[in-house]
Amino acid sequence: MRSRPRPSRPRATTDAGLFLPGMFSAFGTFLLRQFFMALPRELEEAARIDGAGPFPISWSIMLPLIRPALAALAVITAMWSWNDLLWPLVVNTDPAKMPICADLTSLEGQFETNYPVMMAGSLIASLPMIVLYLFLQRHFVQDIAQSGTKGRAACGAEPHAGPNSLFQKGTP
User: For the whole model, what pTM was predicted?
Assistant: First the structure.
């Protein structure tokens, strides 16, 4: 008994199918886990003693502290998704819904390539990532500024308090 071949149906291209798989990654889980592990446990314990539950602790204490990590993860994930070539070509069947970075491949010809047009397209394709970085830049700068002061404040050490310091108390 022979089975009849199934009629092929066109795949529906959805926007969620293009960007949703790129939003979740093992790298993001690892990055946020490492950042949470670096936060002091005393903050969470103090909030529990004050009567806060898990959601208020996460929302009002932990989330503001991990904002730099979330900004970095947002930029990295957006760049990975934006520059992805293979996934949109596999999932997408509609040329009108092709992302710009994947659509740049159509500018390259078999025998000849129009490089000025390709470079202009590459510049246009990189502008959203530059704008995203400029928008989230203050979070990166805050994280770098805070990371330099966390160590001294935590151990209670004074700057220039070493044994060979010229700025010790009692010296002229």
Answer: 0.63
